[in-house]
Amino acid sequence: MRLTxxxxxxxxxxxxxxxxxxxxxxxxxLKMERMxxxxxxxxxxxxxxxxxxxxxxxxxxxxxxxxxxxxxxxxQRAMARDDRITGLVLFTDTGEVLAAAGRGGPVGxxxxxxxxxFARDGKSDRVAAVADGDSQALLLGIRxxxxxxxxxxxxxxxxxxxxxGIRGTIPDLLLSGGINLVTGLLVTxxxxxxxxxxxxRRLREMTVSIxxxxxxxxxxxxxxxxxxxxxxxxxxxxxxxxxRHGAEDDDPHPANPxxxxxxxxxxxx
Length: 269
Fold this sequence. Notes:
This protein is an alpha+beta fold. The chain contains eight helices and five strands, in the order H-H-E-E-H-E-E-E-H-H-H-H-H. The chain has helices at residues 5-59, 71-81, 112-121, 159-167, 170-214, 223-228, 232-250, 257-262; strands spanning 85-92, 97-102, 128-132, 135-143, 149-158. Strands 2-1-5-4-3 form a five-stranded antiparallel sheet, with helices on both faces. Helix 1 (5-59) packs antiparallel against helix 2, helix 1 packs antiparallel against helix 4 (159-167) and helix 1 (5-59) runs antiparallel to helix 5 (170-214).
């Protein structure tokens, strides 16, 4: 089955539209996933800095971090502020755990991955992030009265729950994307049909005119067709003129028909 020009153009535009919408949807989802993860991380960073500030307030008075007695109360109070926090850990600059709360917290010393991240970023004011499976740990250094690192605080939360919440939006995204896709395809089809309809009408009229011209008949050029193809009238006039000259050369008329009629056979003028 041969497809018409309009159908070919519609299909081409619809394929391009589908590709553009699917690419945009995929990129938007990845961007949204990253934005949500960054937003959640920023939210827990605020809680982490708040706890670190409370401990630094006590350490800045000259008290050693290992001598503090209210660390458990500080941690429990911080965890009560956000039920999405799965664990809080206070540790020394050597990685020894001083206090911990929550599920799956380290005992004795912090994990090696935490130590490496804390050794890299603990001396700065930057929060170190360590991913361990479905769990994400944020670590921040605690300064003493002399500006040195007295220890650190770590906060853990479930990265899997965050990602599961993001994946929960996929059905809504697919529904809205499907509606946009169907709407775009319909709009494309209608727009192309409306755009090409007058062009196709002019092309059909031009085909009829050329067929008439091929049979030696003067074509019927409508004003719309003349405006669509300004040079068509001059072209048809030239073709008709050539056809008339060609007909005269192939079948010349006698100069004196009566004399030709009475001339005897075999007598040439």
